[in-house]
Amino acid sequence: MDSANYVIAFQRDRLGDGDEELGKLLIKAFINTLADTPVKPAVLVFLNAGIFFTLKDSPVLDALKKLEQSGVKLLICGTCLNYFQKKEELAVGEVSNMIDIVATLSKAGHVLYP
């Protein structure tokens, strides 16, 4: 796997600030495309509503599993899972905490926030 020193932090369940439905289509396309890119991020971080991508009913679950299998680390905010009462539905990645998330973001060469 080719990997770069960058991290992607998903804070929402959509891409952009325009139409919500369009934003949800775009973020799905972003994640599905990411799984097929030759240079992958080192880590994906999922915070707030972004955690919904890592659940059993996620429309991008296959892409996230493919990324994880290729060596990309997936960190999921445990506080967020608890807040939304979704911990039992987690299907990919590892439950993390803010200490590890802040350390990951601060060590990255670049952080993307789609």
Structure description:
The chain has helices at residues 20-34, 61-69, 78-83, 98-107; strands at residues 2-3, 6-10, 39-40, 43-46, 73-77, 94-96, 110-112. The protein has a 5-stranded parallel beta sheet with strand order 6-5-4-2-7. A two-stranded parallel ribbon has the order 1-3. The protein is α/β, with parallel strands linked by helices and 114 residues long. The model has no long low-confidence stretch (mean pLDDT 94). The relative contact order is 0.24. It is 35% helix and 21% strand. The protein is built from 4 helices and 7 strands. The chain starts with a strand and ends with a strand. α1 packs parallel to α2 (61-69). It has a single domain (2-112), classed as Hypothetical Protein Ychn, Chain: A (3-Layer(aba) Sandwich), CATH 3.40.1260.10. It is globular, with a radius of gyration of 13 Å. α2 links the parallel β4 and β5 (73-77).
Task: Chart the SSEs and their pairings.
Layout: E1 2-3, E2 6-10, H1 20-34, E3 39-40, E4 43-46, H2 61-69, E5 73-77, H3 78-83, E6 94-96, H4 98-107, E7 110-112
Parallel strand pairs: 1-3, 2-4, 2-7, 4-5, 5-6
Helix pairs in contact: 1-2
Jot down its keywords.
114 residues, alpha/beta, Hypothetical Protein Ychn, Chain: A, 4 helices
